[in-house]
Amino acid sequence: MKIREIEEKDRRMEQIIKCSLESFDLNIPGTAYFDPQLGSLAQFYKQQPNASYWVAVNGQDEVIGGVGIAPFNLKKGICELQKLYVSPEAQGMGLSTELMKVALCFAKQHYTYCYLETLKKLHIATLLYRKFGFQLLDSPLDGSEHNATDAWYLKELS
Question: Are 78 and 115 within 8 A, CB to CB?
Fold first, then answer.
């Protein structure tokens, strides 16, 4: 397995994200499921300042997961961890941890804080975020776009 920046050919990421959300009955408005950029993640992240999206690929160069960092609502010093998803066949192998390391290393170079939005029912994800030092907030930061989320985290990058 290797992790690299997303390329135009990596369209499987959209399928991984949608299938993952469907598996939790989260294919609802207010989640990443309806984000207009899902079909063009490579282009979307290249157009933003201090942003990137990485994919993990297996030995056959098939995309098996990904994660992104982008500015949060153009607030100075705050980025957002976005679209951390791993395909079912690659879950339980530590891939999310490796993707988080890459994303947070990048984030530390450009931002002071990293924000993320999720749902409490995604227990494994919330454990991962806490493991990496994210602190649960009482409410979303102003400018949040995913109104179906019910858990918001912030991490000071140092």
Answer: yes
Mean pLDDT for 26-30 is 89
How far, in Å, CA of 96 to CA of 25, rounded?
Answer: 21
Does the reported pTM lie above 0.85?
yes
Handedness of CA 31, 16, 135, 113 (dihedral sign): negative
β-bridge partners, 5:
54
CA–CA separation, 111 vs 152, rounded Å?
A: 18
**Residue 55 to residue 74: CA distance in whole angstroms:** 24
Task: Give me the residues paired with residue 79 across strands.
Answer: 71, 114
Nearest 5 degrees, angle CA 67-CA 72-CA 73? 135
DSSP state of 73: T
Q: What is the DSSP letter of 28?
A: S
Identify which of 18, 81, 17 has the alpha carbon closest to the alpha carbon of residue 45.
81
